[in-house]
Amino acid sequence: MNQLRNIDLRGPVNSIQQRVHEAVVGTGLPPQTVYATVGGAAILSGAYLAYRNLGSHERHVKFSEYQPMSEPYYDVAIVGAGPSGSSLGWYLGKANPNLKVLLLEKKQFPRDKYCGDAVSWTAQKHLRRMGVLQEIVAEKKGCFSHSGGFVSPKGNSFIGNSAKELDLGDEGLMIAIKRIVMDEKIAKAAKAAGALLTENTTVEHAEFIKEKGVWKVTCTVGADNQTQVYYARCLVCADGAPSKLATKLGIVQGDPQGTCSKQYIKGNTLFKFDGVIFYPPKLLPGYCAIFREAGGELNFCTYIIPGGPTKNDDLYSIHHEIMKDYSYVATSLGPNPDAEPMKAAPLRLGGVPKTYADHLLVIGDAAGFIDPLTGEGIQYALESGEFAANTLLEAFEKQDLSAAQLRKYQSTWKSHWGAEFYWSMKMSLFLYRFPIVLDAVAKLIEKRGHRFMSEWAQVMTGQRQKTWFLRLDVWPFVLLEIVAQAVRNVTGR
């Protein structure tokens, strides 16, 4: 200790001060000006950091901290009775019948939505729990896909029977169900579970009353547009890809990135399979597909995914051009198909950056839960409904709907398919730049046979993760086939 006391610290300090002074003099400005500028900058930087930390801080707030409500209110108000909103209503009602759940639907059921109608194996799991799938199968309003495959940009193709290979019996990895049928049945299941389903109700405005901890939701109801006001502890935006409400509230920003079409075709006898995906070079990284519906109808759909030459505004022209001029589709549909008018819908892809706030969640298509590679959305809509329900059940048990509590919802969906969305976007852009990969995969499936095709189908329908492509029994052989395909392209063999 005596040795420490004998050390003269003034030398190093004086040395630092001397260097600072020399640097100040070296600027050529008056020292007072330099010191004032540096000091002011330091104060502003500190103030900014303090503000940023304060703004990002998510405080837990208990219900007991709010003023009591004199008006009647719901625990949860769900805007949109599509697959995500209705599944949330069903899961909440089944788990806690005491929760008051309001399910607001803009249209009157039955009402249609525009998509490919293909329901994946994982999505079927949720429909089974609700009893919806059993009803649809019993009423013969769904068509399981057994025979199917894909056609690569160069025309390499393979058709297999994944249901047989995976021992699924009469079922399949995919089932085509018209949204006009499925959405109504899920909404009715939510209603049977205890949710109050209110149709023909348009949400015009939502305002959070902070001191009371509730949302004031202003709606117009019916053909005469009567005003109706609801109050709810938690607001859930499940109003589709445009998500007008979440956009108004500022939690979702920007327009949907992609778009899709659908067109029902009757009386077709040329297409012999249940589902085939086509990759026209002009459409990459998007694709088009034909799915068989119940009753023998076909659904021809086109997906425009950002990154390629085809833009969203080109949807109508590219849809009909492919039907007429792309030989693989044209021969499947015939020269004069008995087709209904084409319908279109936007696609918000890959998940939005933030899906929660105080007393607020965003789920389904509104949150961008659509796979950027496959266009699959129904599976993620249903799963997000379950994830949101689990988060809200815990939040109500703790009487805490703060952002700090509800961030668990985002952590859950990100852990399940956040990485999938990321890699799907990367892969879609990669396939656009190197379509030879799809040509090679088709050839490899042809060599490996039906089992390999079934595994590919599981990846493309969300049952397997896309890390499947990194397996040692997959990627080296794909690479070899790419080389072989390149040789074929050069030699014309």
Give me some keywords for this one.
eight-stranded mixed sheet; 493 residues; 16 helices; alpha+beta
Structure commentary:
The protein is of the alpha+beta class. The chain has 16 helices and 19 strands. The strands form three sheets. Strands 1, 2, 8, 9, 10, 11, 18 and 19 form an eight-stranded mixed beta sheet that branches. Strands 5, 6, 12, 13, 14, 15, 16 and 17 form an eight-stranded mixed beta sheet that branches. A hairpin with a 5-residue loop joins strand 14 and strand 15. Helix 12 packs antiparallel against helix 13. The longest helix is centred in the C-terminal third of the chain and has 31 residues, at about 405-435. The chain is globular, with a radius of gyration of 28 Å. The termini are far apart.
Give a topology summary.
Blueprint: H1 2-5, H2 10-26, H3 31-56, E1 74-79, H4 83-95, E2 101-104, E3 118-120, H5 121-130, H6 132-138, E4 142-145, E5 147-151, E6 157-161, H7 162-165, E7 174-177, H8 179-192, E8 196-198, E9 201-209, E10 214-221, E11 226-237, H9 244-248, E12 258-266, E13 275-278, E14 287-292, E15 298-304, H10 315-325, H11 327-333, E16 338-339, E17 343-347, E18 356-357, E19 360-362, H12 378-398, H13 403-433, H14 436-448, H15 450-460, H16 475-491
Parallel strand pairs: 1-2, 1-11, 2-8, 5-13, 11-19
Antiparallel strand pairs: 3-7, 4-7, 5-6, 9-10, 10-11, 12-15, 12-16, 12-17, 13-14, 14-15, 18-19
Helix pairs in contact: 4-8, 4-12, 5-12, 10-11, 12-13, 14-16
Brief digest:
The chain is an alpha+beta fold and 493 residues long. The chain has helices spanning 2-5, 10-26, 31-56, 83-95, 121-130, 132-138, 162-165, 179-192, 244-248, 315-325, 327-333, 378-398, 403-433, 436-448, 450-460, 475-491; strands at residues 74-79, 101-104, 118-120, 142-145, 147-151, 157-161, 174-177, 196-198, 201-209, 214-221, 226-237, 258-266, 275-278, 287-292, 298-304, 338-339, 343-347, 356-357, 360-362.
